[in-house]
Amino acid sequence: MGFFRFFRSNKEDASAKVAKDRLQVLIAHERTGRDGPDYLPMLKQDILDVIKKYVAVGDDAVSVQLDSQDDCDVLELNITLSEDSTPATQPSVDAKRRAMERRQAAAKVT
Amino acid sequence: MTKTIVVTSGKGGVGKTTTSASIATGLAKRGFKTVVIDFDVGLRNLDLIMGCERRVVYDLVNLVNQEASLHQTLIKDKRIENLYILPASQTRDKDALTIEGIARVMHKLKKSDFDYIICDSPAGIEKGAKMALYFADEAIVTTNPEVSSVRDSDRILGILQSESKRSKMNEEPVKEHLLITRYNPSRVKDGQMLSVDDIVDLLAIPLLGIIPESPSVLDCSNAGKPVILDDESEAGQAYSDAIDRLLGESKPHRFMEAPKKGLLSRLFG
Ligand SMILES: Nc1ncnc2c1ncn2[C@@H]1O[C@H](COP(=O)(O)OP(=O)(O)OP(=O)(O)O)[C@@H](O)[C@H]1O
Ligand SMILES: [Mg+2]
Fold it and tell me: In degrees, to the nearest 5, what angle opens at C-alpha B225 toward C-alphas B121 and B259?
């Protein structure tokens, strides 16, 4: 082990770095959950649902945070679209159903 | 004025009991009248670490239920003047404790002129841990350089800020201290373990000390002696430094650097 580690660059595969990055995201997320008003988690879920109708994103794509600055509260919204987040190629079941209803309604009129 | 300090962590096995024993012993050695309370009802261990397991007659639950007096329940340490141990019950469970009952005990201890009450919390974030931190003026958040421990410490900080008596009564918040234990500088150097800076950065509370991973901790618990009494050991010295800082002295942190290795041991170690 020691022999190989000596020649490897320390920084690249340092697992502590990965640990810290993961913790940073997780702790920020959990703090929002516990410090923020009760509606924040639901607000976040609703926003996520809307985004998902248009873009394929993971469940962690949206982060909401409430910060107090001087005399006003700022709701900070972060939506990360990863490089490979393509337009939602497969419409959701929900979207499919709504489209079908729309088409059927249109068909009745004509 | 009595100061109540909880030693807490969320995660189990990170060194709370080891820390409680050494912090209490260190404060008593400096002349403060100190009691250390084992809140781990059902899993009593502090008595073993303090080396007084054969002298336990009554316990915290007896005291809370008013089946024994404070005088009968407190065990006076044989080595250090001013040091007392209040053991947990081994046969009951955590539901045997109530906030009102603990409040009565705290009140009695304050009337007996204790300078410090150290509360050794059980693991978890359930009733037992909440009971241990409820009356705290200060908290020593014991954290290992490892992901789940850091996350749990952050959760416990949230609980301190919302469920302690101070937070409920809208008093000045509980004073938080970070104590990093079982620190292994060579693994940090190799990038395998979170560093002190990483942990301070993540938890964002003041650093009370760094206790290195040290074989003397096991030797001392085998012998029933708080490691702070072992002046030779790095862990003992690190706990002594932490006492100085707790009492307001500023001291540089030690034991953060890995011992220098020769080329051969770096290649093959
Ligand atoms: N600095 C250290 N170096 C080496 N070993 C340590 C150190 N600190 C604690 N330990 C060991 O870690 C183990 C757990 O310690 P301890 O009982 O103090 O943890 P705890 O947080 O009180 O556990 P629990 O959550 O079960 O109450 C013990 O075996 C102890 O000897
Ligand atoms: Mg313990």
Answer: 90
CA distance A39 to chain B (A): 18
Q: How far apart are CA A50 and CA A55, in angstroms?
A: 9
- Angle made by CA atoms B228, B124, B201, in degrees to the nearest 5: 70
Query: Which chain B residue has its CA at the smallest distance from A13's CA?
Result: B191
Binary contact (B191, A2; C-beta < 8 A): no
**Residue B149: pLDDT above 70?**
yes
Task: State phi, psi for B150 to the nearest 5 degrees.
Answer: -65, -40
Mean pLDDT of A48-64: 88
Distance from CA of A48 to the nearest CA of B (A): 25
Give residue B246's Cα distance to chain centre: 13
pLDDT digits (tens, 9 = 90+) for B2-50: 999 999 999 999 999 999 999 999 999 999 999 999 999 999 999 999 9
Distance CA B66, CA B105 (A): 10
Contact A15 B202 (CB under 8 A): no
Residue B158, chain A, CB below 8 Å: the answer is: yes
Separation of alpha carbons A47 and B181, rounded Å: 41
Write phi, then psi, for B248 (nearest 5 degrees): 100, 0
DSSP string, A28-71: HHHHHHHHS-TTHHHHHHHHHHHHHHHB---TTSEEEEEEEETT
Is residue A34 over pLDDT 80?
A: no
